[in-house]
Design a protein that fits this description.
alpha/beta, Rossmann fold, seven-stranded mixed beta sheet, five-stranded mixed beta sheet, 38% helix, 18% strand, globular
């Protein structure tokens, strides 16, 4: 739901440019209609809230990025239709969207283009595309809700996460691998990780927890975003005899990894971090379901249409505003839930009379038990490092039902690993 430029938008861009040249922030803390303290991205007179979305809809992360972009559009459409109860009646949301194609330099450029137009970034897609923004976010008092569960996100006041970190997922996966195998001596651990901050977060959790259990790491393999040829990766894992392999990858790598492994008749236990999966994998015309026979998913988040509190409300929003725009997908849901966090902070800022960037951040820090209506573990944004849950679980895909079977319930990682 992008917006055509108006005179007000053009003026905002000009002011942003002037502020950037002078080292200041456009309209920071300016009083608005009715005494409401306001700033960039908020037109109190027209009751319009403009939010930035830095997506990947054309790069190697697009399999996640496209449904993630849709999730924010569903939320905006729900609010704009009226009657949602999420914001006071009359307020509407406009999304200022850019596609960085999973390129960190493009992410920086896109941020610079829209920084003067928006109150906050409702989406900053990907760990390697968010980390380069941190200094600018801090200077602009800009919050960027990351499509990332990197443990680095929770450490920064500007990047509040929506769930447990990749590091915690990996540690829980190792705990389960030891349990599944019947003991640490039966596990020969391997890992395939994306060679960036996302992948390294999972790698750290996997290796640290392996050391805690006394598990031998037999092979560590890296992949680049967009890499298709996985023959060398699978051959190395197979030659090393890895029995349990963590995938800290994105779906564009997961498919080729599992497909190549099937061709080479290599079938360890695969355990994928949250971003390794997309719900399109449930469709056998995308990838044969047989390649997922030994695949498991470690995540601290709900799955699509899981019978948990709040799911009915999300599904109603999907039916009304999403199903005609795309396919059902876990990432639509997670983007929507993440969007609720920012909207809740903005609503609190309105009640406090301050929706400047400083006021928004202060309102965010008042949220100490956010659950997305009951769908998430309680999250505290009171201060960074943020606490976005510590429980993760192991799921297995049920291709007949197009859903999930719980193999191991929510639990914290064992021991006291880093």
């Amino acid at each position: 739901m992008s917006r055509r430029p108006t005179g007000r938008t053009i003026i905002s861009i000009v002011l942003a440019h002037l502020a950037a040249c002078s080292g200041g922030e456009p309209n920071a803390g300016a009083p608005a209609a009715g005494g409401l303290r306001s700033g960039p991205g908020v037109d109190a007179g027209e009751r319009v809230l403009q939010l930035g979305c830095l997506n990947d809809v054309s790069g190697p992360g697009a399999a996640i990025g496209v449904p993630y972009a849709l999730g924010k559009r569903v939320l905006a459409a729900q609010i704009n239709a009226g009657g949602s109860g999420l914001l006071p009646e009359g307020w509407t949301v406009e999304l200022v969207e850019r596609d960085h194609a999973y390129n960190p330099q493009s992410s920086v450029q896109a941020y610079r283009e829209i920084r003067g137009e928006v109150l906050y970034l409702a989406t900053s897609f990907g760990t390697p595309n968010t980390l380069p923004l941190l200094d600018m976010l801090a200077a602009d008092t800009m919050v960027a809700f990351p499509a990332s569960l990197s443990s680095e996100m929770a450490k920064n006041a500007s990047t509040p996460p929506i769930g447990p970190s990749y590091r915690l997922e990996a540690a829980r996966a190792m705990d389960w691998a030891v349990e599944q195998a019947g003991g640490a001596e039966a596990v020969k651990a391997g890992i395939v990780y994306q060679q960036d901050d996302y992948g390294k977060d999972g790698q750290a959790g996997w290796l640290n927890q392996a050391a805690l259990h006394g598990v031998t790491i037999t092979s560590e393999q890296t992949v680049a975003p967009g890499q298709k040829d996985m023959t060398a990766v699978i051959t190395a894992l197979k030659d090393a005899g890895a029995t349990h392999v963590l995938l800290t990858t994105i779906p564009s790598a997961t498919g080729p990894i599992l497909g190549t492994a099937a061709q080479l008749e290599y079938a360890p236990i695969w355990i994928g971090s949250t971003p390794s999966w997309i719900d399109a994998f449930f469709k056998p015309d995308v990838i044969p379901s047989s390649v997922f026979e030994s695949f498991y998913w470690v995540t601290g988040l709900p799955y699509w249409n899981e019978p948990v509190p709040g799911m009915n409300k999300f599904m109603a929003a999907w039916e009304a505003h999403g199903k005609d725009q795309g396919e059902p997908d876990f990432y639509v849901m997670m983007s929507y839930l993440q969007g609720l966090t920012g909207i809740e902070a903005f609503r609190r800022g309105l009640e406090a009379g301050d929706v400047s960037r400083e006021g928004f951040l202060a309102a965010l820090h008042e949220i100490t038990d956010f659950t997305g209506g009951g769908m998430l573990q309680p999250i505290s944004y009171a201060a960074s490092p943020y606490v976005a849950g510590t429980l993760t679980r192991i799921l297995r895909p049920d291709f007949t039902a197009g859903s999930w079977t719980v193999v191991a319930p929510f639990a914290e990682r064992g021991g006291t690993g880093d």
